[in-house]
Amino acid sequence: MRKLSLLMIGAAMGAGAATVASQPQLLTGTSAIAASAETYRQLSLFGDVFEKVRTDYVEAPEDAALIESAINGMLTSLDPHSSYLDPKSFRDMQVQTRGEFGGLGIEVTMEDGFVKVVTPIDETPAAQAGVLANDLITHIDGEEVQGLTLNQAVDRMRGPVNSAVELRIRRGEGAEPITVSITRDIIRIRPVRWRVEDDVGYVRITQFNEQTYPNLERALGELTDEIGEERLRGFVLDLRNNPGGLLDQAIDVSDAFLDRGEIVSTRGRNASETQRYTARSGDLTNGKPVVVLVNGGSASASEIVAGALQDHERATVLGTRSFGKGSVQTIIPLGGSGALRLTTARYYTPEGTSIQARGIEPNIVVLQNVPEELQGRDTVEGEAGLRGHLSNGEEERTASSAYVPPDPADDTQIAAALALLRGERVDSASRGAPQSETVPN
């Protein structure tokens, strides 16, 4: 099992112990007995309903399916990111974090009964077929998605390599549904891509899996060697439409650009569960300037990196506000019965800021020139737009643009980042506090 899973499971177990230990102080005497009795009464009610369904439903149901649905219902009522993984889904998840799996190449969530595309993964069948962030998948091979769980919908989109699946997509209110046929393939995630932009190194991280940091280390080394230490102006770190991934990889990526200081802290239900992660000595870029690109599709681990580098004024964050997923999910194996994906903590930037349902505000806001046919459909609602999301306790923000032009020559955000690094553009917000106004393209 990965280091991350062991670490977070340990934290979850500690939380359970702390909760049990504190119960005598919170509930004593008759109040504790009454609370316990009410819990057992509710469990007894569940048992009664379960037995009635088993014996009286019009067709004989499968007991395991009933229990799995009940577990899923309990977890999905907590927040959009807690769920039960059956043994197959758990195995699939483990394969995906290693960076190679079969499928279409889309990150998805559930919204209003439909499958919502968070982002298509670069160079995958879904991306090549024109699937966009924010698309709502209403039918899979002619079957309605409503009524299915997210895991059931994902299972229907998976299948043998070279087989086709037909998706019906709703793209914007009032728009006519579109149908796309996609041929399944082996999805090999290249989490890091890089290229030379004359005197600037461009690095794009598409997700945080087990290969992310080793590939980033290689990218920074090769770009420095190719451009030359003296000529190198700095780096563009592109985290746009990156849905996140492993916490330990986000920490390592942040550490690559930092020489000291806190990277992120995670705070659970009790103060004793707080964990702080700090940078080790050694900046792989030797202090070269960095511009981080984010947008409405940058979530979770991406926001950890952007927040850490922004708070330490190590990088200028440029683009549009990020997704706002500021919670940590622990994967807890359940023997041979799958696993529990449970939200166990919120994470905080080095300055103690929670981005849950708010996102990272860029230092410099730069909008893309969105094609006319996509205008109004280029935004992602963000975490605050998900039903049942954890509250921030402060003002929440939704809707941020997630459009990235397919041709880098049309990408105004990359152009602004390059100009900033080359000194062709000077901005008072560079490596400083966020500003709110939109910079003209």
Automatic annotation (TrEMBL):
Domain PDZ: 90-158
One cellular component (GO) term of this entry: outer membrane-bounded periplasmic space
Keywords: Hydrolase, Protease, Serine protease, Signal
Gene Ontology MF annotations: endopeptidase activity; serine-type peptidase activity
Presence of the UniProt keyword Protease in the record: yes
Residues of the signal peptide: 1-17
Family membership noted in the UniProt record: Belongs to the peptidase S41A family.
Name assigned to this protein: Peptidase S41
Species this chain originates from: Salinarimonas ramus
Organism lineage string: Bacteria, Pseudomonadati, Pseudomonadota, Alphaproteobacteria, Hyphomicrobiales
Gene that this sequence comes from: ctpA
